[in-house]
Design brief:
The chain is mostly beta strands. It contains no helices and eleven strands.
Length: about 120
Amino acid sequence: QVQLVESGGGLVQPGGSLRLSCTASGFTFRNYDMSWYRQAPGKERELVARISSVSGSADYADSVKGRFTISRDNAKNTVYLQMNILKPEDTAVYLCRARRRVSMKEFDYWGQGTQVTVSS
């Protein structure tokens, strides 16, 4: 059974930091590109950061560049999102996604999300 379980969300003051984790099970984690998305109330879901399965290269939304860092530990089947200098506009549910394409077939899994609230 495929599972992606996010953790690490919470309430933090502006300027603070949080580290999100997403632990995977039920599939071969190292073969999947991993991403973090977020969705704020009344807004569309947006890509925050992603990390490649092959090269480990990462890219980021412009709004988080220089503040957020995505990383992965294939031995622990876990992807992380280190979030620094948090702003109120970072408030959202953060979701983890695992994706892989093999011979024209796509495997695409989502977690349930973890709430991040940035407020004083």
